[in-house]
Design a protein that fits this description.
- By secondary structure, the chain is mainly alpha-helical.
- The protein has one domain.
- It is built from eight helices and no strands.
Length: 198
């Protein structure tokens, strides 16, 4: 395992990816799904609070950044009308499920259950963005997901304790970011559509 101070490098990498995504949002080059980005910030802050309560330490700073960056992206999406992504009933349904996950966390008051429900809430918030990344990869920027993927990977390399509280959320974010990165960078949905037409 590497020294836990490498978490700071991961946080910096995540921040740089977020800055690029925010810049592209302000320019109207990307169109973030507001339900995903807004609820991501909320759900991840729940996981951050639970990790702090469980004594995860400096590694929880990476979780904080995974929540703070989406908050900035969510706010940036209101600046440029070209950055608006039309929301569907499905998006709203996922958002509602995400909020239910957060309410369930609040009711339980148990840190590990909070992390589990925050993963559920985060995933429900993120499904619309995964679908959008599959269908319309040009409306996203793969660098944000790549930087988060690298950041969380660094965090996992610093782990000495492999308990649920330490590993669950970073592992989930690692897998989600990898999926989004592949969908956007390699335009998987468009490749599949072309093959189906041939």
């Amino acid at each position: 395992m590497i020294n836990q101070n490498f978490v700071l490098l991961g946080v910096l990498i995540n921040l740089l990816g977020g800055i690029v995504y925010i810049r592209d949002t302000l320019r109207g080059k990307v169109q973030p799904n507001r339900i995903s980005w807004g609820l991501w910030s909320l759900a991840v802050m729940v996981a951050f609070a639970a990790q702090v309560k469980e004594g995860v330490g400096i590694r929880s700073l990476a979780t904080f950044m995974v929540g703070f960056t989406p908050l900035l992206i969510f706010l940036a999406s209101f600046v440029n009308k070209k950055a608006y992504w039309k929301l569907t009933k499905f998006d709203a349904s996922c958002g509602l499920l995400s909020i239910i996950g957060l309410i369930l966390w609040y009711i339980t008051k148990n840190a590990n259950i909070a992390i589990l429900f925050s993963i559920f809430a985060d995933l429900m918030a993120g499904i619309p963005t995964l679908i959008k990344s599959y269908k319309f990869p040009e409306t996203e920027n793969w660098l944000e997901f790549a930087s988060s993927f690298i950041s969380v990977g660094i965090v996992m390399l610093t782990l000495k304790t492999f308990s649920f509280a330490f590993l669950a959320f970073p592992l989930y974010i690692f897998c989600y970011d990898l999926a989004a990165l592949i969908l956007i960078k390699f335009k998987v949905g468009q490749l599949i559509s072309k093959r189906q037409l041939n």
